[in-house]
Amino acid sequence: MSVAIKEINTKEITSFGPIHLKVSDLEKATLFWTRIAGLKLRSSEEDTIEFGSENKTLVVVHRSAKTSYLKGFSGLYHFAIHVPDEAALASVINRLNQRGYQYSPVDHTMSKAVYFEDMDGITVEYTLETPGREVTDTDGRASMSGPKPLDVRGIMQHLEDDNIDKIIDDRCFIGHIHLYANNVDKSNEFYKKIGFTQSRYKPQMVFADLGSGGDFGHRIAINSWHGHNRPLAPSDSAGLEHFQLIFKDKARLNQVIGDLADYEETAEGYWIQDPTGNKILLN
Predict the structure, then answer these.
(1) What pLDDT is stored for residue 4 in this prediction?
(2) DSSP state at residue 3
(3) Rounded distance between C-alpha atoms, residue 76 and residue 23, angstroms
């Protein structure tokens, strides 16, 4: 029997809405998100398609890219769909195996993950949170342990259903986003300003990690491993269009907006940009 993770997001001050991506080809994106990633096509317009589980949208793709994902620029590193238990992660791996799709299985101690790329080269992660396995530094914060090979055979022992055409578990959710920043220090301070809490800060590794008040301290991750002061990826390349943060407490949202010098209020919510230029919708 699969062991479920702890109840998710009960102490979190924010959660993620759908991730919006720029892609070059909607037909290829549909093939990827349905047959490879296991999502349901929930709605479709001329230039936009929504994918997700049975009852919620997780990913929205926009046909606005002219080139594939370009490496060496700031912007999206990867984003992650979090699964509720080992059975759901085994289902993801089983689908990838049977479709013959290349992926990288990694054990981060705080999570068990598989990484693979869409047709444009955007990296997608499926991850199972396992914060109880983390090792802490002397200051009590989670240590920066290196990745290890994932015990795929052990995960696959939890596979409950061999059907690779079924939609992903409805308990899956967008759980974190990892960004290439042109300046880690400025981005780290920005995300703390809008309510995230420091989990790890390793300036010597040009890396920072922030949580949202719960046990899992990896909701926003930022690094400059691609190089210092790199510009944002060209607007017509595949990658992140924007992401959404939903505040559980509207009073906290109002406080955050009051502390920001630059934002745009629309019917959709409050639009802001982080220091790198990534667009964020606050609700």
Answers:
(1) 36
(2) P
(3) 13
Position 104, amino acid: S
Q: Are the CB atoms for 274 and 186 separated by under 8 Å?
A: no
Phi and psi torsions of 106, nearest 5°:
-135, 140
CA distances from 282 to 90, 189, 206, 272 (A): 33, 17, 26, 8
Say which amino acid occupies 80: A
DSSP letters spanning 168-188 = PPTT-EEEEEEEE-S-HHHHH
Residue 232 has what DSSP assignment? Answer: B
pTM of the model: 0.93
180 close to 278: Cβ distance less than 8 angstroms: no
Give the mean model confidence (pLDDT) for residues 112-124: 98
- Residue 152 burial class via C-beta count within 10 angstroms: exposed 0-12, middle 13-18, buried 19 and up: middle
CA 39 – CA 58 distance, rounded (Å) = 9
Asked whether 36 and 103 are in contact (CB, 8 A), the reply is: no
Is the separation of the CB atoms in 105 and 149 below 8 Å?
A: yes
Report angle CA 76, 137, 197 to the nearest 5 degrees. 45
**CA–CA gap between residue 140 and residue 7 (Å, rounded):** 22
State the Cα–Cα distance between residues 55 and 105, nearest whole angstrom.
28
Amino acid at the residue 106: V
CA–CA dist 277, 152 (Å, integer): 37
CB count, 10 Å around CB of 45? 10
Coil vs helix vs strand at 191: helix
159's tokens:
């596979």
For 137-192, how does the pLDDT look when each residue is reduced to its tens digit (9 = 90+)? Answer: 445 555 546 789 999 999 999 999 999 999 999 999 999 999 999 999 999 999 99
Nearest Cα neighbor of 191 from 204, 203, 177, 202 is 177
Q: Output phi, psi for 148, to 5 deg.
A: -130, 160
